[in-house]
Design the sequence.
């Protein structure tokens, strides 16, 4: 089975800490987790499209959901009726998002959960449901039900320790590759493992909604500590990326921690575990941006010197979501005027004192005090090189007290338009 | 000289009221206004690129400026140091925005104003300055200065009554056609005239910033009434359009009203004048969207039933600026799932009660109570027709008390990406 570095493109934006070691596999690499992926027939040509993941023992868990008001049925069901601190399993289908499907959709999601719980011999409130795919179409339950029976039956039968790849494959929609991996963390008290499976290639792809991520861990960690670790990692990773600024109806991140390693990290160990988790989720998040629809490069934008965090965030998002900024990167054009315009729009008229700003592309300062810097021939050459890198580091230093924000974004390309215009409902 | 309907594409979104008559010309059609356009050499190939507009007599005036914190030098100079209630003239250059140009930029804008005021024999505070074009490059004053001398000299010499077209042409950048016209309004107390010249084809085009609009009127109207009329017309037109969601550093709308007709409209007449002004600015605004970069169609989106105006506005903007919604219109795909997703994102989690919504494309209700309506073959056919119209009317009815918002937007196309990616600084 492949591991972390085969399945995720290396990004210099997300280095792994020194106390972390890559191991083969994915969500089943930590002890006590089973997973399978099956072909239910929702996707054509017998592609894997339905997965079940379960911990063999009780878990603490942490869940993050989309804040979209049009949240899909599986999100609403799980958020509103599951015991999100003690989930032990999740059933996921791809190819149909079960979103904008009304009462029937909620009933279908509940049926998915009931079937899975039944086969897994778990109380329904310990089973989460996730879906990704077409919006506004009812689930083909005649395919989903046998699929769940097969998948959950296999897991309940004890198979699935080696099926992390199948699970990660089953949750894909238009992702160019499966996104999964596993890491071993040296906590000081002993080694524990983290496993991951994620999907996403736009906040919402050609009507194929969603970013999903499932995390497993075999450390002995309390519920509130695990929730804190997961929340911090999500805030620093999935909440910091944008492909097209569009938040899906189905986004969900679930983290399961079952203690099966018997290793209970101390304060220092917990801090290492958190650091590993954050690095891993950031790596997955950057991988989603790199796999963004039509994307040809990934930018990291750091905004500093804002008057407060809200402003820093607004400036970062305004630049990252500007179609003019994004097309300029596609054109390999260091068009700082568009960055300045987006900053100015985000700040509004009373933000004038926060300008002039400094703008740098990697180590080349292109704007100083709000005005173009005089670049010599060497700097011009360096800038041209930078614009052809697959990853570009940008900094915008405002003229204020110091609040900061970082976002990761992709460019806007002909392929993005093609992918999203040529799709037909 | 051409008039209103030759220069502006007819839009059913912006019908003219019955008491309004099209007349030939533009900003010089109302009495007592002179305008010229000259080729200063800033644009290549002797294209017109510098204009001066003046009222022969004292005016009341109203000015609206971009709220972008990175406002360009001419905006800052005019906003901060002119008598914006009594402007009599404006000098405009195209090809260079004089934005992000620091102290030198402010000095250059002040020099433009001083030269124009000198030739026009007006106090500097009665002269506005506007620029549009490249960001971050200092004005070539060696070309601008003789240009102003020639243009303002001609106006001061009394020529320019027939040069509305030249003026409207001189303020263009990448606009596909000049946008100007004139209307006669029957006020009840007598006929008065309105003249217009506008430019814009993106909130910010391939680094060619800006929406500019200049309005002239020969009615006898007081300063505060004129300001009210202009403000209402701008709010209902230019503030309601989006091509790419990007607000320029140079946007400016100036309205001059000089009383030269001798006709003082009463209450009913003022109301007619306001209605005519609003219809005209909306027509210009829709024309800017239709001329939006790469645009192939114009959508009017009306959001109703929101809990308050801010929410209505947020939902309308979220849909209108969603790249997924915009690419779907380019692909002639009635992809309501993307509209629902954008609505949900704008409302956020606590907006759930505002959904389910009703979504209609023209007369075809495609979503009812948040779920896809069952369309028969006739409705399917009608929907396919609608998706090929040059103008499409959309309604989103939320499930709330009733606040409304309307925006006009263009689609997102391969040509938009080409125009904005292939431009090189």
Sequence:
């Amino acid at each position: 089975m492949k591991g972390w570095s085969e399945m995720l493109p290396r990004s210099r934006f997300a280095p792994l800490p020194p106390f972390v070691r890559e191991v083969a596999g994915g969500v089943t690499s930590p002890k006590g987790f089973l997973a399978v992926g099956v072909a239910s027939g929702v996707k054509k040509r017998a592609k894997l499209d339905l997965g079940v993941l379960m911990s063999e023992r009780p878990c603490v868990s942490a869940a993050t959901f989309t804040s979209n008001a049009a949240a899909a049925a599986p999100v609403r069901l799980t958020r509103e009726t599951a015991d999100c601190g003690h989930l032990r399993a999740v059933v996921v289908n791809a190819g149909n998002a079960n979103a904008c499907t009304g009462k029937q959709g909620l009933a279908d999601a509940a049926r998915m959960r009931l079937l899975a719980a039944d086969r897994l011999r778990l109380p329904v409130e310990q089973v989460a449901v996730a879906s990704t795919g077409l919006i506004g179409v009812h689930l083909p339950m005649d395919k989903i039900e046998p699929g769940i029976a097969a998948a959950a039956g296999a897991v309940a039968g004890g198979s699935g320790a080696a099926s992390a790849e199948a699970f990660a494959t089953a949750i894909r929609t238009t992702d160019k590759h499966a996104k999964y991996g596993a890491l071993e963390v040296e906590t000081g008290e002993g080694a524990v493992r983290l496993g991951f499976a994620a999907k996403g290639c736009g906040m919402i792809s050609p009507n194929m909604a969603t970013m999903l991520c499932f995390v497993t861990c075999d450390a002995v960690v309390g519920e509130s500590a695990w929730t804190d670790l997961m929340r911090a990692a999500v805030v620093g990773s999935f909440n910091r990326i944008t492909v097209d600024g569009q938040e899906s109806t189905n986004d969900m991140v679930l983290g399961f921690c079952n203690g099966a390693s018997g290793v209970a990290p101390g304060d220092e160990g917990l801090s290492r575990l958190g650091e590993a988790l954050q690095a891993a989720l950031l790596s997955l998040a950057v991988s989603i941006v790199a796999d963004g629809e039509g994307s040809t490069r990934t930018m990291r934008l750091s905004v500093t010197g804002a008057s407060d965090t809200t402003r820093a965030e607004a400036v970062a998002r305004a630049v990252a979501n500007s179609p003019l900024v994004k097309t300029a990167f596609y054109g390999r054009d260091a068009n700082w005027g568009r960055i300045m315009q987006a900053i100015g729009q985000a700040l509004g008229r009373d933000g004038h004192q926060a300008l002039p700003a400094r703008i740098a592309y990697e180590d080349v300062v292109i704007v100083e005090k709000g005005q173009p810097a005089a670049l010599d021939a060497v700097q011009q050459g360096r800038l041209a090189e930078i614009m052809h890198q697959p990853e570009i580091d940008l900094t915008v230093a405002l003229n204020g007290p110091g609040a900061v924000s970082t976002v990761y974004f992709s460019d806007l390309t002909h392929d993005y338009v093609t992918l999203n215009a040529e799709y037909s409902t």
In short: The mean pLDDT of chain A is 92. The two ends of chain A are 36 Å apart (CA to CA). Chain A has two domains: 4-290, 298-422. The first strand of chain A starts at residue 20 and ends at 23.
